[in-house]
Design brief:
alpha+beta; globular
């Protein structure tokens, strides 16, 4: 799980650094990615998109599916992965 979390974290940090991806929506003040990353949380992976908004906890299969989706060239959050 540590490796899965580390790879997801790499993608999220790339999204955060890319001004074409990390665009504030509708003239807002919050970017979709800010101090983003992922970490192992026991048998789960914690995913943070905006640090002060908290994290999401993904089960192993959800984390692996999200990582595969990212590796396929997709950009976005785990909620965008089709079931």
């Amino acid at each position: 799980m540590t490796q899965v979390a580390a790879k997801i974290s790499e993608y999220l940090q790339k999204f955060e650094a890319d001004p074409k991806i990390n665009v504030k929506r509708d003239g807002g003040t919050i970017s979709p990615y800010w101090q983003s990353g992922a970490y192992q949380a026991g048998r789960f992976v914690g995913v943070i998109y905006v640090r002060f908004q908290g994290s999401f906890t993904l089960k192993r299969d959800e984390a692996e599916k999200y990582l595969a989706w990212l590796e396929a060239g997709n950009v976005g959050k785990h909620l965008q992965v089709k079931p």
